Amino acid sequence: MKDRDLLDTLGPIIRDAEDRRFEPGFSGRVMERLRAEAEAPVIVLSRTLGRQFLRLAPIAAAVLVALSAYSLLGLGTSSGQSVLEAALGLEPLTVETAYALDQSFYAANDE
């Protein structure tokens, strides 16, 4: 294809492209719409969550401290175990359990 054929083929396409323009005032209407959208109140989730966190965080921290103190002081255990013993699942140590462990140890070694 020669240059002349290429110009004949692309010429009408280029001429049509020149005729396509936006109507007068288009850019002004677009900018006005963008300004209106920017000025409109928008509820942002992060701001709302931030406000709610600031209201609820002190209450949650106070509850956490109270429950931790209750747990560590052992006020919730009625068996006389410490918090560590209860967390590890250890049985309360009594004379009977000590002798039972001693007897089971020797019985296992005798076999």
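[next item in queue]
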Amino acid sequence: MEQANLENFKKLEELEELKKAVEKEISSPEAAPPKKEVLEKIIEEKYFPPKTEIENLKPVLTEIEKAKEQYKPLITELIEIAQEEGIEKAVNKARGFSKDNPYLLDAFHDELVDKYFYLLEES
């Protein structure tokens, strides 16, 4: 995965919103989960379809890995869309493509969380 760069992000307010949401979650009095897990949960709940829509597509890890490799250029393009136009627009586009391969959505989700987590740690 190529490193994320803050200069590439046109939607910095979206990144700040995610950062605040993560900080709010980990500041709770309960034992806080790792930041990356919190970020993954926030992105999934806010932008990705509910599990009920995709629960019958429970992906096998190897299938997700295949999708990551097969769709690497598309996932890179979707990450750029998320950076420039927002996560919601990128997820909607990914959902359209994932009708042919449901693992694409999972692979995109994983890459998106990795990219945004890196940015949150750097900011």
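[queue empty]
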